[in-house]
TrEMBL record:
Family listed: Belongs to the DEAD box helicase family.
Protein's UniProt name: RNA helicase
UniProt motif (Q motif) ranges: 26-54
Organism expressing this protein natively: Larimichthys crocea (Large yellow croaker)
All copies of domain Helicase ATP-binding, residue ranges: 57-232
Full-protein interval shown: 252 to 490 of 708
Domain DEAD-box RNA helicase Q residue range list: 26-54
Length: 239
């Protein structure tokens, strides 16, 4: 396996393997039907999708779960955010009537949460409101923001679990879940909080997991919580 190569695999354990969707070679391939997203990509000036994006978008837009394994800086944030916007838009009950967030991104640190929120704002879609929830942040402010209505929550597991245990946030409307940098979240000891958070999220959600590495702990998390995921990995990994 060569460096910088991209591999896609169907991790489904039973039955016939699904065909791997063709990668998109341009932004238009993936988002032709979403002019608002195309405009934002053009405004930012990106030339073409990164390898992980070109393979992740068709999988996620088809509604399948995804594991994306690639090093830092390979564009994983947009790989899951843009399909997440479209997912929320396509829900049978209109966003405004759901009374709670539709997308949750769990990420290991406050810095990452803030970076992801900046990307969210840059590609602002349908005026969806995003909120960062992290330890050390203004807890009361976070609670008030949740009450005012939020579409996208980007959170570290510890503080989100704290709000959840105190009935200060409802997770029942979430249908798109991202476990970002799963390997780091496990290294930081967040597994118990992640498990408690996932208990309150409906099982028929769509899941995305990203990681730079693919150790046993991450595999276990994936097989417990993802549903027949496709896996995309970039670079050479011992699999
Ligand atoms: P990762 O999560 O894989 O570490 P990020 O999503 O943070 O990577 O992306 C790293 C940087 O690359 C960000 O500044 C992001 O805006 C930029 N980026 C994302 N997609 C593209 C693209 N298609 N072309 C050029 N730059 C991109
Ligand atoms: Mg990232």
């Amino acid at each position: 396996k060569e460096n910088n190569s991209i591999f896609v695999d169907d991790l489904k354990e039973e039955g016939e393997k699904r065909p791997v969707p063709n990668p998109c070679r341009t932004f238009l391939d993936a988002f032709e039907r979403y002019p608002e997203i195309m405009e934002n990509i053009e405004r930012v000036g990106f030339v073409k999708p990164t390898p992980i994006q070109s393979q992740a978008w068709p999988v996620l837009l088809s509604g399948e779960d995804l594991i994306a394994i690639a090093q830092t800086g390979t564009g994983k944030t947009l790989a899951y955010l843009l399909p997440g916007f479209i997912h929320m838009d396509g829900q049978p009950v209109p966003r405004a009537e759901q009374g709670g967030p539709g997308m949750l991104v769990l990420t290991p640190t406050r810095e990452l949460a803030l970076q992801i929120e900046m990307e969210c704002k840059k590609y602002r879609y349908k005026s969806y409101k995003s909120l960062c929830i992290y330890g050390g942040g203004d807890r009361r402010g976070q609670i008030n923001f949740v009450k005012g209505g939020v579409d996208i929550v980007i959170a570290t597991p510890g503080r989100l679990n704290d709000l959840q245990m105190n009935d200060l946030i409802s997770l029942s409307s979430i249908t798109y879940l991202v476990l970002d940098e799963a390997d780091r979240m496990l290294d930081m000891g967040f597994e118990p909080q992640i498990k408690k958070i996932l208990l309150d999220i409906r099982p028929d959600r769509q899941n995305v997991m990203t990681s730079a590495t693919w150790p046993t702990g991450v595999r276990r998390l994936a097989s417990s919580y993802l549903k027949n995921p496709m896996m995309v990995y970039v670079g050479s990994l011992d699999l």
